[in-house]
Amino acid sequence: MGSTSDVGRRDLIKRSAALGLITVPAMSALSACASGGDDDSKKVDKGKKSAKNPLAVNESAALDVVIFDGGFGQQYAKDAEAEFAKAFPKTKGKVKHSATQKIQTVLQPRFNGGTPPDLVDNNGAEQMDMGTLVGKNQLTDLTPLLDAPSVDDPNKTVRETLRPGVAEMGQFDGKQVWVLYYAYTVYGVWHSKSNLAKLDVEYPETWDDMLKVCEKAKKKGVAGWTYPGKYPYYLPFSLYPFIAKIGGRDVLDSIDNLEANAWKHPAVKAAFEAYYELYKKGYILKGTPGLTHIESQTAWNEGKALFIPNGSWVENESQKTTPKDFQMAVGAPSSLDKSDKMPFGTIWASGGEPFIVPKTAKNPEGGMELLRIMLGEKSTKNFIKQVSSLSSLNGGTDGLSLPSGLESAQEALTKAGKNVVNPRMQDWYGTLQKQKIGVGALGEMMAGRMTPAEAIKKCQQFADDTAKDDAVKKYKHV
């Protein structure tokens, strides 16, 4: 979900799974590994708790870390692991680092065998379904980490240093925190300020203006929009906050809660019809349904399209093809009309890059300690400089020169104020969000193979099927 988390930027999801009518590997994998319990006999002995070692880490035990090698790469994690080895010199040479884009494929056998890593960056197209992991009791409660003193200020707990809502995102039901989202992602309509200036236009704050800008671009041979057609679950990054802006955040909450007829809300209909109009008027870059995330971002960087729905990891992920004068920026969803329930500036921002400590990890204290180090100012600044993204530490940008995209993300957050939404579908029901709603409905609609009414009907059907599935643990906004 970056991040986002990310989401997207992964291996090909075949069109044969587009309608979500087959069982996805991640679900079967988790069902297979769900029988494994907590075997304390395999865990390393705890160390001695102290001011410098508040989590009682075994100071000589090995540490096993698996990182998703996506938009943020893996160097930031390697650097934090080096800091871990400095803090615990006897672990030098014992920190095992692995990186992959195939999280589920690589880790399924290890979960099945009761030998998972100590810390996992669980992201990507092969992300293990978080709701299922929690429901099957496969994760370690991270409350001890959150209640531990922070690296930089012993008078503040780690929890007290996090951005608002980050700890709560790791809760699924009850007070336990099962996931720590390390990045802080700003989602929206990404664009180039310089490319808009070439057309003598500004970012459109209303949908009527959005259509006018797209029409003007079309006359110049430039598409209005593109998106990862092979991974159309990127579309919600701008579509979901658009729905909330039109109808209020309660609309997204009801969708997350799998409520009957939630997808039939007038705000959903209005948003779907607005996006479908982009297709009908020829404002989508030709060939977009066949593009990967990298291909669509490259086309956008090359000025073939003005707008792309994405998360703030895009600045780092697309840097090799981004022109120096691009002036990358993120825009909040345009206003549909004056009856919108939320003001312009409403945006989706939330924790991304989900880290987990498996229940049967040998060294869970070591995994949590590495996260504690990552949430210190030194590691945070290193992360920001390397990948052009905020972390979940509330701060860390002092003294840093921010690139244009990250600077605009900061500005967007400031402008949004309290009008920040955080839909949980991708966290609670990853398969429903990606393969079904994303690929099987939104992707079909934006490719012109479904009407908005048909897509809404399909989304509601997918949601209803999930609500009725006793094998899927359910979560609700409180």
UniProtKB/TrEMBL annotation:
<dbReference type="InterPro" id="IPR006059">
    <property type="entry name" value="SBP"/>
</dbReference>
<dbReference type="InterPro" id="IPR006311">
    <property type="entry name" value="TAT_signal"/>
</dbReference>
<protein>
    <submittedName>
        <fullName>Carbohydrate ABC transporter</fullName>
    </submittedName>
</protein>
<comment type="similarity">
    <text>Belongs to the bacterial solute-binding protein 1 family.</text>
</comment>
<dbReference type="InterPro" id="IPR022386">
    <property type="entry name" value="Chitin_NgcE"/>
</dbReference>
<dbReference type="GO" id="GO:0030313">
    <property type="term" value="C:cell envelope"/>
</dbReference>
<keyword id="KW-0813">Transport</keyword>
<dbReference type="InterPro" id="IPR050490">
    <property type="entry name" value="Bact_solute-bd_prot1"/>
</dbReference>
<keyword id="KW-0732">Signal</keyword>
<dbReference type="Pfam" id="PF01547">
    <property type="entry name" value="SBP_bac_1"/>
</dbReference>
